[in-house]
Write a sequence for this structure.
């Protein structure tokens, strides 16, 4: 095959400019340290292809080379979307995930789930409603599928830079959706999910976090699996006295009994296992003011007071678990705080009964 | 017997016992560790308690010095100390009680005002020490001071008694506090 001296310019005209730009921006997002891993997972460029590229050059030049390579290999928009999915899978906590639960009508028969049928049905529903939409799929383990949707309108092409991600676990009624700014498309998305998976209804749970794996653990009730068995051989006394098992005998804890009680209560509530990771818990209160004094303007007020209490932490549940042992709070903690993983909620609305 | 009295037990031979009272268990333990690292002619014993009264069914040595630790970051720790003070006999406050405020270095985290602890210490006529127990250097220095104070309170330093020490430590910088 003869090579045109000005070949590069000629060849690049075969790939749409917007797609090329999409490739460039997507590859640019990937940190250099992960570049190889992500590209290998993508599996569009083979080992041989990747060897022709110099990975030690400056990032901008590397990205340019990779984009040219993609153009050479006639990569399509779908391939780019797939790369975007893989990048997001590696960086899932850059997005905030909501949890949706679907349900069937009582007594409805559950057919065997067919992944391909689900995907084609899902895509068809979206494409019928919105002509301009890009839908891409990537299967993962545990019978799950990652779906990427780029939304457009009747007259505008899909915006590839504001996609919505859905992770659907087909053996369960749960789907995780990375919050999108385009709230208007959520009902359509819900409908597509519900119908394609042969459910009847979809409901948004009051559970939200950046940590997809923790959300999974909470919703699938997998967080209380304790894999460490060596702890059980250490007697409770030694463990509960905290920092130093080989403590100086000249230090005497007067409240040993109380400390042990706190450790025991904390362990009963939170268990021995690492807690799922959430960043906040939010309580919306709409309650009437209660006062011991029975006096004052607030006590006479008929309407409930509105108040929002938000707890934030890099790791909320571990922080709550350490409150009583650290002496900052009494044990047991309020059930409003400890029920979070059990109830699968971190948004609460509290009203007077 | 829910009230601590300074002279209701016989002293142990060459033993000095300090009682640290506070909600921050971790900090108390660290301070205890620092104190026990000091070279001291007397035998030191450190008792840690979250609050008073102490459990009554325990055989414990005579307590020579009580230090109430208030964490300025926590209203809870202040309230805890205030309630515990009711279980200490008045005669303890003749030089055998001291207050220690921690956390003043992180101004933004403080929910207890400095003046509150100053007033509290003044009310009980006892010295108030400030130390960020989380910082090892400060903690070591404070441990040295406390060991010295403890030795005096236990009567191990000839010529100086707890009451002497109290009058030496009394601060004259805020005369207006006398009017409180």
């Amino acid at each position: 095959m003869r090579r045109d001296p000005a070949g590069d310019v000629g060849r690049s005209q075969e790939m749409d400019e917007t797609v090329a730009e999409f490739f460039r921006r997507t590859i640019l997002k990937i940190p250099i340290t992960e570049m190889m891993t992500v590209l290998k997972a993508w599996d569009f460029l083979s080992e041989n292809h990747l060897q022709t590229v110099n990975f030690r050059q400056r990032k901008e030049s590397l990205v340019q080379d990779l984009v040219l390579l993609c153009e050479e290999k006639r990569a399509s928009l779908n391939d780019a979307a797939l790369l975007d999915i893989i990048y997001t899978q590696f960086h899932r906590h850059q997005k905030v995930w909501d949890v949706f639960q679907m349900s069937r009508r009582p007594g409805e028969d559950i057919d065997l789930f067919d992944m391909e049928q689900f995907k084609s049905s899902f895509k068809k529903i979206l494409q019928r409603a919105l002509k301009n939409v890009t839908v891409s799929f990537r299967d993962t383990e545990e019978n799950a599928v990652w779906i990427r949707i780029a939304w457009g309108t009747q007259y505008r092409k899909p915006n590839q830079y504001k996609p919505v991600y859905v992770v659907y676990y087909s053996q369960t009624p749960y789907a995780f959706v990375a919050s999108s700014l385009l709230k208007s498309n959520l009902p359509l998305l819900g409908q597509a999910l519900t119908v394609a998976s042969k459910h009847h209804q979809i409901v948004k749970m009051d559970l939200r976090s950046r940590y997809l794996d923790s959300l999974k653990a909470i919703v699938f009730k997998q967080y209380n699996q304790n894999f460490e068995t060596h702890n059980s051989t250490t007697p409770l006394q030694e463990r509960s006295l905290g920092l130093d098992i080989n403590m100086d005998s000249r230090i005497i804890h007067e409240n040993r009994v109380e400390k042990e009680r706190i450790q025991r209560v904390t362990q009963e509530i939170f268990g021995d296992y690492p807690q799922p990771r959430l960043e906040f818990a939010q309580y919306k209160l709409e309650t009437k003011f209660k006062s011991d004094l029975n006096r004052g303007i607030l006590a006479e007020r008929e309407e409930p007071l509105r108040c929002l209490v938000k707890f934030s932490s890099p790791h909320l549940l571990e922080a709550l678990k350490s409150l009583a042992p650290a002496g900052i709070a009494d044990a047991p903690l309020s059930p409003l705080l400890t029920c979070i993983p059990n109830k699968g909620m971190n948004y609460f609305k509290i009203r007077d009964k | 017997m829910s009230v601590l009295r300074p002279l209701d037990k016989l002293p142990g031979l060459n033993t000095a016992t300090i009682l640290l009272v506070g909600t921050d268990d971790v900090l108390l333990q660290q301070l205890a560790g620092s104190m026990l690292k000091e070279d001291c002619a007397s035998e030191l014993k450190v008792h840690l308690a979250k609050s008073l009264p102490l459990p009554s069914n325990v055989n414990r040595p005579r307590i020579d010095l009580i230090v109430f630790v208030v964490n300025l970051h926590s209203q809870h720790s202040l309230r805890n100390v205030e309630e515990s003070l009711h279980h200490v006999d008045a005669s303890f406050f003749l030089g055998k009680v001291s207050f220690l405020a921690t956390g003043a270095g992180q101004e933004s985290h403080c929910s207890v005002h400095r003046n509150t602890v100053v007033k509290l210490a003044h009310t009980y006529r006892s010295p108030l020490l400030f130390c960020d127990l989380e910082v090892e250097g400060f903690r070591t220095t404070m441990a040295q001071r406390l060991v010295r104070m403890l030795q005096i309170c236990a009567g191990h330093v000839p010529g100086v008694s707890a009451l002497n020490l109290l009058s030496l430590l009394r601060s004259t910088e805020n005369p207006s506090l006398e009017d409180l």
